[in-house]
Input
Amino acid sequence: MTVRVLVAKVGLDGHDRGIKVVARLLRDAGMEVVYTGLFQTPDTVAAAAIQEDVDVVGLSMLSGAHLTLAPLVVKALRDRGSDIPVVVGGIVPTNDVDELKSLGVADVFGPGASADQIVRAVTSLVAERD
Amino acid sequence: MATESPYEHWRRHYDAQRLRPSDFTTMSGIDLEPVYGPRDGKFPGVFPYTRGVHASMYRSRLWTMRMFAGFGTASDTNARFREIIDAGGTGLSTAFDMPTLLGLDSDDPMSLGEVGRCGVAIDSLADMRDLFAGIDLAHITTSMTINSPAAIMLALFIAQAEEAGVAREQLGGTLQNDILKEYQAQKEFVFPPRQSMRLVRDTMAFTARSMPKWNSISISGYHIREAGSTAAEELAFTLANGFAYVELARDAGIDVDTVAPRLSFFFNAHIDFFEEIAKYRAARRIWATWMREHYHALDERSWQLRFHTQTAGVSLTAQQPEVNIARTAIEALAGVLGGTQSLHTNSMDEALALPSPKAARIALRTQQVIAYETNVAHVADPLGGSWFVEELTDEMVRQGEDIVREVLDMGRGSMLEGCIEGIEQNWFQHRIAESAYALERSFNEKRRIVVGVNDFLEGNDDDDLSILRVTNADERRQVERLREVRQARDDDLVRGALARLAHDARDAQVNLMPALIDAARAYATVGEMMATLAEVFGRHVEVPSL
Output
């Protein structure tokens, strides 16, 4: 089965370089990627993830709002009875990684994360669910 | 003056300048000329200005060390502004938070978690007053990096300054106000492109009439480059946008020589040292040539491309962040050797968070080392005449002009239409994304090396940098402050001001600045003014594409 990933921008952050590059790198690795565009809310992301039946949700965040918004996306999914894992990429200080994970985020990719690293992590998250 | 040679022109202007107190010698005492090259060659301050816009360049005045700052509440940022001035900064530049950039109040549900995070939160006149408290706006120029709500921010700034006794005519500074690159790259847009351009037109017309010391637009390639473009694309998209604003003003009946001298530019200083220097030299040449030949500007100042530079945020690494000091120093030096008028140097910790006070001070100190220790500011365009730099400059001009002509063709002879068409067709966005992807692949395949990222990893585990934390407490304080403002104001006055704003917005011939200044004085919030305009203008939605 082909791995399906929803990549999403939640909140007001318009920086979309990272999300577009990562989306293409995931496609290069043979995955199907869905992108719903800028200025999404936790609810619109959760709804799209379930409707598109994706295996993983990837959030790209560079505005510093990750500690507030990423857990809300996890909650919006769980409230809908979904166990789709959520990963975060972007400008995330090392100190925030553990807190994000304790709030239900499956993995975090900071600046400089390689394509290999991201693809491997997504692949193993999918394998864990199966 | 037709008989004056370029050398004589340069000499006359150079001799008319007052120079900084300095002996302009090398460390070992060798006397230095203000510029080098053959008498029958090219000179700074002479069309097409490849070698710089001023005859004396940094001998008369160093670049403005303009540090970009903003976080938390207006009072927090005011304190940082004062630190910058005390440390020898000579200009201010305001970074706004995401809600403010999108014209949302701090208590808007969409603002949750974003208030004061990556810039300062400004909701009303009360915040603008705190932001500039105790800062002498007659002597320190200020830049406001904001676009969609730029007209509103200008209105708040004028209201605040006039309250403090400084007339709008006295205010010197820059509004970024470059909405085209928002659709192309930075993506902080609100209204559809044409309605946004009406606001840009209104600010240009208003400042041309009432604010002689104000730069109405800072046409910004910085964000285009940060979003992933090549150097030539940064150069070309930026100049095309600049020409589009010139056409916008011309179509509104403003003379090209009234508006062009108030336009300034803003470029990235990326890590490829010589390519960046060539880019700045090419930008000056293309702008001068097109403004004279294509737009028939007659005033020399309309031909002179003045620009601000910021070192490349995307070149910074989270790994071994102290190494970023070296990257930033090299990039800053490229900006200076390329003849920048002002400079912001990034802090070493910006791949992780907003800068800590110490990191911001080191970044400013880096500029001071270049300015005061290295003597590179003694001679104008020191790399002019280098076979390599001249050829690279020519190549940048060729590539840049090719792309500019592509935009012009898209608009069937109108750069303004070409820019809007290119935005609506995702043409700019697509090109930028393609270039970003190509560069990323070169890193992944190790065809390009980034120290600490894909090579030289020893030391990556050291993690003892203390970074700035913006907490949710700042958000709560700001929301509380906004509640107090709403309680204390006269609601009838606000309603009346917003009704007039809506009325004026419906007539495309009316300039919106007077209504915005009245609304600002009545303590209408940024969110209320933007929502009022959005009722009339509608909202822009980008079609998502990968």
